[in-house]
Amino acid sequence: MKEKLKVLKILHITLCVGMVLAYLYIGNLTSLDFLKFPELDTEVMVYLCIPFAAIFLGNFLFRSQLDKIDHKKSLEEKIPFYQGASLVRWAILEGAALIILFLKPALVVLGIFIIVYMIFLHPSEARIKHDLRHTGR
């Protein structure tokens, strides 16, 4: 379990650091101008939906993949499925953050919100046991 958890932690850290570096470099976060929110119009409203849609879709796909795991398997046997489900969730969040960064740089604060949420999804043994507790029902 420890080795598989270590791999998952390294992947998570790499994805988070890559996103932070992309936002620092491409998002030009050297000044505090990114905190100014543009005027609300229909285009901005669409981009406001992206983080919420990514969080919902990522969690939905994560849960649906975990629900497919046979509950008779041991925790060790469930870990590869958990890794795949986690990667799907993180990829959706990363994609949403990149979409915001490249298509609407004025809303980088939304991408920062996604990155912070992604950081809070860090894998731990307790989280894995909690998430896999109700699988296969």
UniProtKB/TrEMBL annotation:
The chain crosses the membrane at residues 7-25, 45-62, 96-120. Keywords: Membrane, Transmembrane, Transmembrane helix. This is MFS transporter. It comes from Maribacter polysiphoniae.
